[in-house]
Amino acid sequence: xxxxxxxLLLLLGTAHAEEAIxxxxxxxxxxxxxxxxxxxAARQGHDVALVExxxxxxxxxxxxxxxxxxxxxxxxxxxxxxxxKRIVKYYSDKYGADSKVLKxxxxxxTFEPHxxxxxxxxxxxxxxxxxxxxxxxxxxxxxxxxxxxxGTRVTALIVDDLATKTTRTFTGDVFIDASYExxxxxxxxxxxxxxREGRGEYGEQLAGxxxxxxxxxxxxDHRTQSYNYRVxxxxxxxxxxxxxxxEHYDPxxxxxxxxxxxxxxxxxxxxxxxxTIDKAHPGAKYDANWGDFAGNSEGYxxxxxxxxxxxxxxxxxxxxxxxxYFQNDPELPEAFRNEARTWGLPKDEFTDSGHWPFQLYVRxxxxxxxxxxxxxxxxxxxxxxxxxxxxxxxxxxxxVVQYLRENGKLVPEHTRHVAVNNYDIPYRSLVPPDVENLLxxxxxxxxxxxxxxxxxxxxxxxLGQAAGTAAGISLADKKPVQMVDTKKLRGLLTxxxxxxxxxxxxxxxxxxxxxxxxxxxKVIFKAIPSGHNKDALKQIQWDFIGNxxxxxxxxxxxxxxEIEKVHHVxxxxxxxxxxxxxxxxxxxxxxxxxxxxxxxxxxxxxxGRWNGTFPDYIAGLPLRYSDVFHGPGIHRDQVVRGKxxxxxxxxxxxxxxxxxxxxxxxxxxxKSQATNTPVVIKxxxxxxxxxxxxxxxxxxxxxxxxxxxxxxxxxxxxxxxRNADTDGRIAVxxxxxxxxxxxxxxxxx
Length: 749
Hints:
This protein is an alpha+beta fold. The chain is built from 15 helices and 39 strands. The termini are far apart.
């Protein structure tokens, strides 16, 4: 599977260095994760080699990604928090505490690339035990091949010195692969994935292909989201150079799109293509994030360096062609070209690479299959982990993967976006199954869906710090990384300012006896604590019908089911701090036929403008928490330019039996939502129109019953809601049809 990652030129002209360089900790990848890993290990008194393939450290953060996606800023702790605070101090010291430049830095979230690199270099220089080796690119991994041992160890990292065209060998006691590519990890024969899992593999609603023919929805594939360069652009004519003409200039893709808009007068200037034109970063610079081209990442993750360079050049030429086209194409109006020429690349950025970023934005490549695979449910429902070592909070964010033809049009296909709560990332996601001295903080163990949130640079920084700290514990205790004491690790990280347990929820499990009851049996349900709860429990509520009605309270409840089917049971627990957790189970009764049908909002046909999000925050908590919900999240209609855009949601179930059903709408109330949401239900006796008050709470649960109706078997029924003429926003978390029994006419004699 692995190629020998060495371009032909180097293969022919590379000599071998004679002596290996030994350090206790060897970190490959001078990314933000690698920098923080090196610092964390050095803090504990260990000698560290930080090996980076570029001429600069900082990866994407100093390589153009200067509008940093954080999610909940309160969860960014430790060395990552220190980095962003140093950004603030730099601009405050240079321009003043009341300066516009400092304000533009957005509390450290936006900055100039060279400033990010400067601060990274300062942080590294404070630790003399760290030696940085730049322009050293991965060649191969040497592992202990003794098959008599239970585990495997990495014994050496071999890299190519791009300056001298020699190879160097680094030996170490613990290795950390902090690269975006995961080459060291793959070379150690650690299992990994490239591409998207199918929905069935981990039970992820968002997994697999999301558009196109019904037969392919949810299938896994080999594809990853697109890459680009995050190009720094400036409107300061005194500090700009015009966009250069790329080696392979091709304006063809932009003529029918950008060119058409410009010629029709719909784009009046260069800024018309810039979504952040009103948000200049320090130095009158902008982070251009519009070089995505579907499919441009394919082949990169496992490619040779020659292949990767070819892919990077193609992406660079494509983006550069677009910029050059705006300023120079003779078919464009002269006024537009003249205005476009007031923009350019900053003179004071990337001075040794033609003012173009040195780092390709590898949004997703290899993903380790480690001791624990982080998945969708870990981001949306079961968000607390006892071995959590960092917090994620940014939404599931996937750029275009491919173009598919749908209804005669080409549409960009990608994993659907949805906001997430704060969630904990377990130490196990950094640990390979059996390589005893390797940690992987960037190409961490996660599904594609989970990685779409985890992949943010502040999270990489925190995972890097955790990896470096764990490496120190492994060395001190002389134990494999799999046996690192996570309590000790969490204690050290807390002392270093890490924010842990941000995804904490009350910990209980739902049990019942007998496991498979018959109609009329007394079933004993229990809510049993599963581990230590941080705060006392305030309320325990049960829904045994599946329609949102509270039909029991307390830790132990007895319930009798009368209908033979699979029943949906929900347990909602609230602690004294206000944190909630929703647990659900399917209880088989009698013949246990699946008669109820639940469609999540992500399974509905959504037309118009919707936001994939989650219910409103619970007030009064120090960190960001949302109310409970079903599945990956909810959908709420969207406000565009101050007005609510038209939106419609259509849900069409496939009912297996004719009968009487209770129809329930899933949502949580909010003061911003409508009191008159219009709903149409198509059933066996015609159609019913009703309005739903989504502002007032009628139950603690998700589901709200709308009425009982007769339905025929099949897929001829539906529920539809829209936001026309409403007095507020509308929200939907799904629709449920609860089977109540046969209709009178359908009953057997």
